[in-house]
Write a structure and sequence with these properties.
- The complex is a heterodimer of chains A (about 190) and B (about 525).
- Chain A is built from seven helices and six strands.
- By secondary structure, chain A is an alpha/beta fold.
- In chain A, strand 4 (about 70-75), helix 2 and strand 5 form a beta-alpha-beta unit.
- In chain A, helix 1 packs across helix 6 (about 155-165).
- The longest helix of chain A has 19 residues, at about 170-190.
- The two termini of chain A are about 25 Å apart.
- Chain B has 20 helices and 19 strands.
- Chain B has helices at about 10-20, 35-45, 55-70, 80-85, 85-95, 120-130, 140-155, 165-170, 200-210, 210-220, 245-250, 270-280, 295-300, 325-330, 360-370, 405-415, 425-445, 470-480, 495-510, 520-535; strands at about 1-5, 20-25, 50-55, 75-80, 100-110, 130-135, 160-165, 170-175, 225-230, 235-240, 260-265, 265, 285, 305-310, 375-380, 420-425, 450-455, 485-490, 515-520.
- In chain B, strand 6 (about 130-135), helix 7 and strand 7 (about 160-165) form a beta-alpha-beta unit.
- Chain B is globular.
- The chains are: A alpha/beta (about 190), B alpha/beta (about 525).
- Chains A and B meet through helix 1, strand 2, helix 2 and strand 5 of A and strand 8, helix 11 and helix 14 of B.
- Strand 2 of chain A pairs antiparallel with strand 8 (about 170-175) of chain B, so a sheet runs across the interface.
- The complex binds iron/sulfur cluster.
- Iron/sulfur cluster binds near residues 454, 458, 521 and 522 of chain B.
- Iron/sulfur cluster (SF4) binds near residues 357, 454 and 521 of chain B.
Chain lengths: ~190, ~525
């Protein structure tokens, strides 16, 4: 089994914490993990991408080869398209519909979403709205992990455990909000 | 023994701790920063080792040398261009009889994710005639760092660990081994070997050269240089270094027959081993991250009838970071198609200053103050504010190396341009801007130095500057900048008109002036608040 994920987004959107939760969960379930991150210059509001590789065998490369990724998990619609060449023809694009239009010529959002829907396996999640309903717009990341959870080779229980650990220091209310966001994301993706 | 998941940088840090590290010194620089950040956190928890940020890479290296003189183990880490700053102590330390183990961890940035160039530090190790170890996995990053301290004491030379961004900033599993205690304090038994007067230096240089065959014997027999599939019937051989091995392994399955493979992870490269490996082969493909270092060297090692293919021959791109796909193409394998959406071009999303960043307001004031001067020049430097080169600011015209804004401004002004403004961050100023400012003060050069004081090393994640913001004005005054041309401004947009007016007055002044624009980085403010919240919880 191997499951390669390209995580995409814009600097500041918390792409790395999404990656960290999935990575910890996979490791906990005995999988090999390699996770390549972006630090430094590009983190300042630019395009950010992380490679996360999960496998039941040792993993050689930190980078995912073209045409082989199982999932592009994107926090932002435009960014979800940047890494299509890395996706396997049978892979899934899972993206939030919340645009970060922090530059002048951002394309028309509705047109962009329509193009994404033409892909063979695309899941679009209204993540920020679901996060707000769960109690905090800051839980948008958790909605996206929840939405990805049914595709990932790890159990929901393990993911929930690590979401709990990540937010434990911030108190029970914060943990609860994030778990709710996780559940909402899963339901939105599965119940489509 | 226990297993943990670490960044490549952290694996180096933990390897050093477990090797009995006494002290670590560094200046922040992507992708090396997390080595020292890890050690600083480790010290908070365990009390050791000493782990400090320094004024620059040169001071960091010299402090590590002092630790070695005292017989204890020291780690100094930096990014590749940092080694240019530390080149003087590094090159000379190769001649000294190293006492306590001294390890230099250098993180190169092929592909220039966050750097001005992609120089390959292996050449620096060669230049200094010392051993370089190059990990290709997290486990090796840990193991090699541990071993490097032993090698340093055994060969009495500094040892380089060469990392690249992709390993420094990726997470992987590491199995740790039993930690070793720190060395006791024991002053160098050969103090004369640390005094590089010509007579001593000549003796030391000869001694270093005489140790070269022994170093080569080590690299020829160490487990970092390995051959697999020597009797493979494939028509060509593959030589990899560093991470190129991983990208090669990623593609082996599709090759049908796996070629004979030599991996080089320890330098000086084992020439005899390579000669033997190539044997009757007529073609070798050399896959290395960085310069065509080995490839070039092989042209003098292998007979001329062997085709050596690599970055220099044009079989692998001459620049940029390697990846599985580039290696795939160089192996003659077909690329795998991904998905595409026809007719869609994606606009790039370049990095930019955080919304509301104080630098943005300062750039606004600079641009306004220079309006109407067609010959105005704004030199700049390394940091978040380098993004002032991009729209919407388009405010700066140079970025070369740490501190260069100041020296370049002086030269440009003396060559006849006017007005000239040098823009530099507080930390970069303390790193390398003070000395060129001394030159400008001496000549009363007609230029304006604008220090953007955001009270932190912003670009690398908000490390503390070597001296606090509150001391900057006294420091600059103490260097000899006249009081009536030294101003401290609040870089808040509500003071924009005033700040622009002060800048305008000073750029018109035909002599040296210094303006310090102070306002804290938004990220550190945010993090400060988060830390307060966490502390209260
Ligand atoms: S990190 Fe700080 S200094 Fe850098 S762009 Fe953001 S606010 Fe400005």
């Amino acid at each position: 089994m191997k499951f390669d994920i390209i995580l995409a987004g814009v600097g500041g959107q918390g792409v790395l914490s999404v990656s960290a939760i999935i990575a910890s969960s996979a490791m906990h379930e005995g999988l090999s993990v390699k996770q390549s991150e972006v630090h430094g210059m590009s983190q300042r509001g630019g395009e950010v991408q992380a490679n996360l590789r999960l496998s039941d065998k040792p993993i050689a490369s930190d980078l995912i080869p073209r045409g082989t990724a199982s999932l592009v998990l994107s926090m932002e619609p435009l960014e979800s398209l940047r890494y299509l060449p890395y996706l396997s023809p049978t892979g899934t694009v899972l993206t939030s519909t919340d645009a970060v239009a922090n530059f002048a010529n951002y394309p028309d959002l509705e047109g962009l979403l329509a193009r994404i829907r033409t892909l063979p396996r695309a899941i679009l999640i209204d993540a920020e709205r679901l996060a707000r309903q769960a109690g905090s717009a800051r839980a948008t990341n958790m909605v996206m992990i929840g939405a990805a959870s049914s595709l990932l080779p790890v159990t929901l229980e393990t993911i929930e455990h690590f979401v709990g650990t990540l937010f434990a220091a911030k108190g029970a209310r914060v943990v609860e909000t994030n778990l709710k966001a996780l559940a909402a994301g899963r339901e939105a993706a599965v119940g489509r | 023994m226990s297993e943990t998941v670490l960044l490549g940088d952290e694996a180096v840090a933990l390897g050093a701790v477990h090797a009995g590290l006494t002290a670590a010194y560094a200046y922040p620089g992507t992708p090396s920063t997390e080595i020292t950040e890890y050690l600083i956190r480790y010290r908070r928890k365990h009390g050791t080792p000493i782990a400090q940020w320094c004024a620059n890479e040169k001071t960091a290296y010299e402090e590590a040398l002092g630790v070695s003189f005292a017989g204890r183990r020291a780690l100094v880490s930096m990014k590749h261009v940092g080694l240019n700053v530390a080149a003087d102590p590094f090159m000379n330390s190769a001649l000294i009889t190293i006492n306590g183990g001294l390890v230099l961890a250098v993180a190169d940035d092929p592909g220039m994710h966050s750097s001005q160039n992609e120089q390959d530090s292996r050449l620096f190790a060669d230049f200094a005639r010392v051993i370089c170890l190059e990990p290709s996995s997290h486990q090796q990053a840990y193991d090699m760092t541990r071993e490097a301290f032993d090698l340093s004491e055994r060969f009495q030379i500094p040892i380089m660990i060469r990392l690249v961004t992709r390993l420094a900033h990726s997470r992987g599993n590491v199995t740790t081994a039993e930690p070793r205690p720190e060395n006791p304090v024991a002053k160098s038994a050969t103090p004369a070997s640390w005094i590089l007067l010509p007579a001593n230096a000549r003796r030391q240089w000869r001694a270093l050269l005489e140790r070269q065959p022994e170093m080569r014997r080590y690299t020829a027999s160490c487990p970092h240089n390995t051959v697999t599939g020597a009797d493979s019937p494939a028509p060509f051989g593959v030589i990899t270094t560093g991470l190129a091995r991983n990208y090669y392994i990623e593609n082996i399955e599709d090759l049908g027959v796996a070629p004979p493979h030599l991996h080089v992870g320890a330098y000086p490269f084992p020439a005899d081993m390579i000669r033997k490996f190539v044997g009757g082969l007529r073609r070798v493909l050399v896959l290395e991250e960085g310069y065509p270092y080995l490839e070039r060297a092989l042209r003098g090692v292998l007979p001329p009838n062997v085709d050596i293919e690599g970055r220099e021959s044009g079989h692998v791109p001459p620049d940029g970071e390697l990846n599985p796909d580039i290696v795939r193409a160089s192996l003659g394998l077909k690329s795998r198609p991904g998905l595409t959406i026809e007719g869609l071009t994606l606009p790039p999303r370049p990095p930019q200053l955080c919304a509301g960043c104080p630098h943005g307001d300062s750039f606004h004031a600079v641009t306004a103050a220079l309006a109407g001067f067609p010959d105005a020049v704004v030199t700049s430097d390394i940091g978040c504010y380098t993004l002032g080169a991009l729209p919407p600011y388009n405010a700066i015209q140079s970025c070369v190396c740490m501190g260069a804004s100041v020296g370049m401004a002086k030269g440009a002004a003396e060559a006849g341009l006017h007005p000239v403004v040098a823009v530099i961050g507080d930390s970069t100023f303390l790193h390398s801007g003070v000395t060129p400012l001394l030159d400008a003060i001496t000549e009363d050069t007609p230029m304006t130095l604008l220090i953007l004081d955001n009270k932190t090393v912003g670009m690398t994640g908000g490390q503390p500057t070597i001296r606090p913001s509150s001391q900057l004005e006294d420091l600059v005054r103490g260097l000899g900048v006249p009081a009536d041309h030294l101003h401290v401004l609040d870089a808040h947009p509500r003071h924009d008109a005033h700040n622009t007016a002060v800048l305008r007055r000073e750029v018109e002044h035909r002599g040296l002036s210094v303006i310090i624009a102070v306002r804290e980085c938004l990220e550190t403010i945010k993090r400060g608040k988060q830390e307060q919240v966490a502390a209260r919880a």
